[in-house]
């Protein structure tokens, strides 16, 4: 039984019950992967339809994320980069990958150690910055 036959049997039109304008689908990695999986399941047996649907969806993802960057979001964050730096106006989802898989490694450890050293060396300055 195909997915379309299952949907007909269940009398469920998933296209009509989803809010396709919800930013969850385009500005959240889990949502984006969920929609990609759905498009595969519903249209993966028809190459032409699948290519059309997945390309339309990916274009929406690109457009929804153009304003995002991988710049640090606050002073305690070294970067917000999942794979490769992304600047405002450029396509990419590195910031979404960073949300799902925060980076680590020697450079992040060095940043955190430096920040900790600064806090220990200058507790008054740190307390003022933190509103204490």
Number of strands: 0
The class by helix and strand makeup works out as mainly alpha
Listing every helix as H and every strand as E from the N terminus to the C terminus, the arrangement reads HHHHHHHH
Query: Could you tell me the strand content as a percent range?
Result: under 5%
Helix content: 55-70%
**Arithmetic mean pLDDT:** 80
Shape, principal axes of CA atoms: elongated
Low-confidence stretches: 126-132
Query: What is the number of helical segments per DSSP (H or I, 4+ residues)?
Result: 8
Strand count, sense and closure of the main sheet? Answer: none
Structural features, described:
The protein is an all-alpha fold and 132 residues long. The chain has one domain. Helices cover 60% and strands 0% of the residues. It is built from eight helices and no strands. It has helices spanning 3-10, 14-17, 24-27, 29-43, 47-64, 94-100, 106-121, 123-129. The protein is elongated. The relative contact order is 0.09. Residues 126-132 have low confidence and may be disordered.
């Amino acid at each position: 039984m195909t997915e379309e036959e299952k949907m007909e049997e269940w009398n469920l039109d998933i296209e009509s019950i989803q809010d396709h304008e919800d930013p969850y689908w385009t500005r959240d990695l889990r949502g984006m992967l969920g929609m990609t999986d759905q498009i595969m399941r519903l249209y993966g047996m028809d190459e032409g339809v699948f290519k059309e649907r997945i390309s339309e969806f990916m274009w929406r993802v690109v457009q929804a994320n153009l304003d995002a960057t991988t710049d640090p979001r606050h002073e305690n964050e070294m970067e917000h980069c999942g794979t490769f730096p992304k600047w405002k106006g450029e396509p990419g989802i590195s910031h979404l990958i960073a949300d799902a898989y925060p980076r680590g490694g020697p450079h992040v450890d060095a940043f955190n150690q430096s920040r900790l050293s600064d806090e220990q060396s200058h507790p008054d300055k740190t307390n003022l910055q933190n509103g204490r």
